[in-house]
Amino acid sequence: MNISFAIMRIAAATNSLLFGLFYDIIIIMITYKHFLSELKKSELLPVYLLAGPEEYLKEECIKIIKGRLFTPGDLVEMNLQVIYGDTNQAVTIINACKAMPFGAKKKLVIVKNFSKLSKEDKTQLTPYLSSPTIHTCLILITEKIEKDVVHDGCQVVNFYSLYESEVNDWIGQQVQKYKKKIRTDASRLLVSKVGTGLSGLSSEIEKLCLFVGKKEHIETIDVTEVVSNNREANIFELMDAIGQKRAQQALKALNDLLSQKEEPVKILFMITRHLRNIFKLKFLQKQGIPTAQIWKTLKINWPAQQTSLLKQAEFHQEQDLRNVFTLLLETDISLKSQDPKLYYIVMEVLIFRLCQKEG
Fold it and tell me: Which of 28, 168, 182, 345 lies in the 20 to 30 Å Cα band around 255?
């Protein structure tokens, strides 16, 4: 595959500095923050495509949609249908959407694993998406943008994995719901132990707020006593090992993640984002951008992470990183086309190739 073409495909995914992730389309989409704002003040649209890896935020937005769609007294159970793309066909989705609501003004149809719907079924779904019924709100949930099913009436929302600085802001917002505050160092320690996955963080935040009782502030000592390292920490071990080209450590971290049922696609996304940050760092350094400005651009505020990234950048050459993005794209395609039993082999081969020493 031509390198420049591969980079162009990757760059179309997000509005980041240079690289996005695997979407070979150019399409207008909004972030979840914009989406939350729109949900509070705008009329609901008939079709939403919720794409990206952050499932927790998707569920939060679906709760808001349900609150907007149904009123007290509505027969929600009769008007809410969840369909799975890997076990159903287009006709099931279309029939569910066209069926009139009963005991409510509107219906809500949610299609999970939409990307696993067959190509033929997506084609069959296109006419409905071009002219959806007004009495149904259809939500399509997927990891990637489905350009063939996006139409004028479909709102595309990008639920990307949050950067650490955004996660710390999110943590602050969550503890406020319990009428608490959290120290900056405590928030950073929490992320270092749990990772940036919002579902895991939400659970730990609830435990922390219960633990501190009447105390207003959550301190580092509270995080140390309550929060144990969990599997999310392994993803950072994996990324650091890849960044320093330590194959054996990377394979061990990969094995731990997969044995704990972590999704290979999510692991691949995190690896890609990490290597993208290394590429951006080297690119900006080459342009003579001041270090402080580089960290603002990358949205990396934690000194330990900055030091680690600088060290890892020494193991990589710019041209080699360009080639790496083609490899990551090929792995993404392979994961989506291979038997799940082969996932470990696909990821293992990727790790070996990423950890190869140059020269």
Answer: 168
